[in-house]
Amino acid sequence: MMRGMRRMGDEAVLLDVEGGHRAAQALARTIRARDVVPGAGTVGVVGSSRHVEAVGAGVAVDAGVAVEPERPPVTHQIPVVVDGEDLAELGLAADEVTRLLAGSELEVAWLGFMPGFPYLVGLPPELAALPRRRVPRARVPAGSLAVGNGYAGIYPGTSPGGWQLLGHTGVCLFELTPEPRPALRPGDRVHFVPVAVVSAPEPLPRPPVTGDALEVVDPGPLLLVEDGGRADAGHLGVPRAGAANSCFLRIANLAVGNDEWAPALELAGAVRLRARRELLLALAGDAPLVVGGTQLPTGTVAAAGTGQLIEIGAVRSRARAVLAIAGGVQQAPLFGSYSGDAVSGLPPGPLRAGDVLDVGGHPERARVRFSLPPPEVPVRLRAIVGPDEGRAEALVGARFVVDRQSDRTGVRLRPAPGATDRTMSASVRPVPSHAVVPGCIQAPPGGGIVVLGPDCGPVGGYPVPATVITADLWRLGTVVPGDEVEITLVSLESAKVCAERLDTWIAGAVTGWYPTAFA
User: Fold this and answer.
1) Of 56-65, 161-170, 347-356, 454-463, which gets the smallest average pLDDT?
2) ∠ CA(221), CA(214), CA(302), 5° rounding?
3) Which of 59, 250, 294, 417 falls between 20 and 30 A from 337, CA-CA?
4) Which is more confidently placed, 424 or 379?
């Protein structure tokens, strides 16, 4: 039974459920929306404003989302080596932890955070009492067995993480064949079997990226295919992904005549590509574009001939740039999206030298020029209070600086020099793990805040006092270490107005008509 609803930004809500994780799973199976993510007595619902409002009012809305059939629980024997780096800090003996794990049967309550990441309940009291880390790690190795605030879990791939590391295993938690699916499902039972040695987990196989339109000569530090992100896979732990700077994505796509959310290339540094056929391009970002040896004016649509080298220089500011190609980049979709992410390991992920991309059919018309929003100093993020209580007001008026440990998973913000970390001095109450979305502002007890990005896990465990509105998410894709950030709180009504104004601005950012008729 649903007993309440909390707002999580302007396109998601968190439903509170009586009866714990089993009741949350049961309720989640009855809801149709863009994404439905169960947690510890909660269900996160992501979708359009219409769907979210209807769910909050108790109205069933069919968004065309298929419901996965239930299956009987399965018991899994998982070998584990108890040698985690947090054992000494926690004052735990490996032999005692081994004994406690071996004597326990755990249940998969739900999946989240990464593809196939299981939230396991049923720990013995000695392990269930261990808290999360006060400050999350920027990197947790793949296969790590960890615990925090009553749960155990296994990290399927290398990622950030805030749980205490007790050991490691080599199991594969997400399979790609014959279809993408997790190895563990809610309701399954898990027995950890202590062993002396396990092999490292095998990375997910990466199929070849083959096409006939655009060759990757040098991908630079990070080159990804991105669109608007995927839906209906958060309950499996699959990140939404999508463009870090959706504003640039939409403008670049409109400039070359594509649908504004068509797949494009997102880059974080200098890139070299080669056209295998005639292509029409638009580069949105602060980086020079050279085609066939000629540097082209910024904010203009450019043509590349067959065999010509497309060189994009270092991104000078605003973190990332987006290169849209008329027809849109075409790769094998996964859960309805072409987006890659840099964390989960789902293929193809970051593009590599030698990859060759397909491009769709040419649109009928393209534009000539486009403009981008002017830079902001400081960068201002508007947010809606919730879903968790406390500390939202402490964010207002505080000055934050972007930390170097920031990426597409999340932007870490620390107090600006000379500023007081009011979030650190405030009391922090642990919260049960629940669904999160890009824009959630997590407040770890160790101080500072993390604004979640497109590659964040669908479930998190740190308090979220506020969530950045949809119209400002693109600004997260513009910040670089050292940038100053300010946060203000707005109402849901204001968030809707901001989204409408952004839509209007983007529609007017492209002008003229490209003179060449496409075949």
Assistant:
1) 56-65
2) 90
3) 59
4) 379
**For the sheet containing 106-111, what is the strand order?**
75-80, 189-194, 106-111, 118-121, 151-154, 144-148, 164-168
Exposure b/e, 451-471, CB count within 10 A at least 16 = b: bbbbbbbbbbbbbbbbbbbbb
The answer to whether 330 and 356 have CB atoms below 8 angstroms apart is no
Q: Where are the domains of the chain?
A: 2-56, 75-194, 214-370, 379-505
Nearest Cα to Cα of residue 206 among 339, 346, 332: 346
Instruction: Decide whether 75-194 matches 379-505 in CATH topology.
Output: yes
Tell me, what's the pLDDT at 516? 57
CB burial class (10 A; 0-12, 13-18, 19+) of residue 408? buried
Judge whether residue 314 has pLDDT over 70.
yes
CATH numeric code, 379-505: 2.40.100.10
Sheet containing strand 279-286, strands side by side? 223-226, 264-267, 317-325, 279-286, 302-304
d(C-alpha 227, C-alpha 243), whole Å: 6
Angle value at C-alpha 116, between 156 and 113, nearest 5 degrees: 80
> Locate tokens 């439905």: which residue?
36
pLDDT per residue over 328-353, tens digit each?
998 888 898 999 988 887 888 999 99
Q: What does the pLDDT average to over 352-360?
A: 96
* Domain 75-194 grouped into CATH 3.40.50.970: no
pLDDT band at 365 (very low <50, low <70, confident <90, very high): confident
Q: Could you tell me where the DSSP H helices lie in 326-429? A: 392-395, 422-425
- CB within 8 A of 25, min separation 6: which ones? 38, 110, 186, 187
Cβ 382 vs Cβ 424: under 8 Å: no
DSSP H stretches of helix in 243-391: 246-255
**How does pLDDT run across 77-113, given as a tens digit for each residue?**
999 999 999 999 999 999 999 999 999 999 999 999 8
Which helix (H) or strand (E) element contains residue 88?
Answer: helix 87-90
